[in-house]
Each structure stands twice: as C-alpha cells, then as structure tokens.
Amino acid sequence: MSHTALIRSHRKPRRSASKIAMRAGVAGGVLSTLAVAGASGSASAAEPVTQTLELPTLTADLAAQVAQSADATQQAAANYQLQAERDSAAAKAAKQAKSDLAEAKQKAEAKKKAQQAARKAAAERASRSAERTTLAAPAASSASTGTSTSTSTSTATGSAAAVIAFVKAQIGDAYVSGGTGPNSWDCSGLVQAAFKQVGVNLPRVSQDQSTAGTQVSLSNLQPGDILYWGSAGSAYHVAVYVGDGMFVGAQNPSTGVAEKPLSYDPPTGAVRVL
C-alpha cells in the first residue's frame, strides 16, 4: 500500500451508480432525440409524396382559372363584336341618311327647274298669243275692206315657183319630229329640202332658218319667203309662203303637211333667201 493511500484527498474517486445511471439516461435521451430527429427527417423526406398526391387538386384549380380566363376572353370578344356591329350599323345609317338627303336635294332641284320651265313655257305661250292677236287684227281688217297685201295675189316665178311646187307636192305627208322625207317631215326638214331643189343650202333647224336671209315685213311678203313663228334666232316653227295669203308647212302630227291661210296661225316674221 502506498504511503498516501490512507489520505482521503489522494484517493481516486469512484463513480457512483447514480451518475452512471444519469449518464445512461442522458445517453438514452440523446438516442431518443436522434431517433425522433430521424423519424422527423423521414417524415420530412416523405413530404414530396404528400405534395405529389395533392397535385390533382392544384391542377383542378388551375383548370378552373383557365376556364374563367377563357370565359372572360369570350365575353370580351362578344362585347367587341357587339360594339363593332353597333359601329357598323351607325355608319350605315349615317351613310343612308346622307344619301337620302342628297336624293331629296336632287328632287327638290328637279322640281324647281320643272316649275321654272313651266312658267317660262306659259310666258312664251302668252307672248305668242299676244303676237298672233296683233297680227290677226290687220288681216281681219284687210279682209273686211276687201283689200290684201301687195303680194297676196302675186305669181311665183323661177326658183320661188320650184320651191312652192315642191312643198305643195308634199301636202298630205306625215309630220314626224326630225323627219327629212321623202314621206315624212318636220317643219324645218321640209323647208330645207324645198330650197335644196334650187341649190340653196339652208341650216337644218328653225332657229337658224329664221335668220338665214333678209328680214321682210309680213305686209310685203312674196311667194317663196320663209315664214317663222317665235323670235328671229329662236323660232320654234317655219313654213313657206306660197302666195294668196296661204302657206305650206309640216304643222303637227294631227295635220301633217298642209296648206293653211295666214289667219290659221299668224306668223311672227319672215325672211327672204331668193
């Protein structure tokens, strides 16, 4: 035995059973903690499996969202189409209204022109009636006194006789507007053809024929003179004076080419080309 063995402080301390047990408990607790941690780790490792099982739920939600988005897109498209249809209808209505307004203006303008033409025609008829009344008065006066114009009984000779013979040969032919023979005539067509027989080329229409020669007084007519109705340069009818107070002309569709007295339709004036 050592010489210090009896000295208490120099003895090697012994481990008590309680400490050993406590240490064993601590160790067991640590092992338990590790086991729990391991179990927790295993549980954590199993979480992806749990999430994978929940994917169908997430997919269904996503499908619902997609469906809602599709509905919203379809509604927006429908709203856009409706607005486009409304805009198109409004534009069409505005275009139709503009067209209707233009048509109404055209009709109003045409009506106005027709009224003006009617008033002008009425004024011209009144003027012609006044002129005929004025010309008829001297003719009636001459008839009542037994006198006549100095040319009423004159006999045509030369070219004038040929012109008169031609127009008398056409008496009974039809009147046709624009007619130039040989069996139908209008007034200026007959006069032009008659003077062409003697080499005189007259204009085609009444207005021009009324200024083709020298203006002569109705009181100094000679056979072969051209009679006109209306103003010189704007005459609406012509015929040929054939003497003895008579004239031959293509009058109208009802009479055709006929010989009439001056009193039947007193002319406005006369021109001489022969």
Notable characteristics:
alpha+beta; rod-shaped; 4 helices; single chain; endopeptidase fold (from Nostoc punctiforme); two-stranded parallel ribbon; 6-stranded antiparallel sheet; 274 residues
Structure description:
This protein is an alpha+beta fold. The chain has 2 domains: 79-147; 149-272, endopeptidase domain like (from Nostoc punctiforme) (endopeptidase fold (from Nostoc punctiforme), Alpha-Beta Complex). 57% of the residues lie in helices and 13% in strands. It has 4 helices and 8 strands. The protein has helices spanning 17-145, 158-169, 187-196, 206-209, and strands at 174-175, 184-185, 214-216, 226-229, 237-243, 246-252, 256-261, 269-272. A 6-stranded antiparallel sheet has the order 3-8-4-5-6-7. Strand 5 and strand 6 (246-252) form a beta hairpin. Helix 2 (158-169) packs across helix 3. The protein starts with 16 loop residues before the first helix and ends with a strand.
CATH topology heading of the largest domain: endopeptidase fold (from Nostoc punctiforme)
Helix content: 55-70%
Rg over C-alpha atoms, rounded to the nearest angstrom: 63 Å
| Secondary-structure arrangement, i.e. CATH architecture of the largest domain | Alpha-Beta Complex
User: What oligomerization state is this entry in?
Assistant: single chain
Strand count: 8
CATH superfamily annotation of the largest domain: endopeptidase domain like (from Nostoc punctiforme)
Compute the number of structural domains. Answer: 2
User: β content, as a range?
Assistant: 5-15%
Q: Which shape, going by the Cα principal axes?
A: rod-shaped
Terminal residue distance: 194 Å
The CATH class of the largest domain: Alpha Beta
SSE topology string: HHEEHHEEEEEE
Low-pLDDT segments? 33-46, 132-153
Neighbour order of strands in the largest sheet:
3-8-4-5-6-7
Secondary-structure-based class equals: alpha+beta
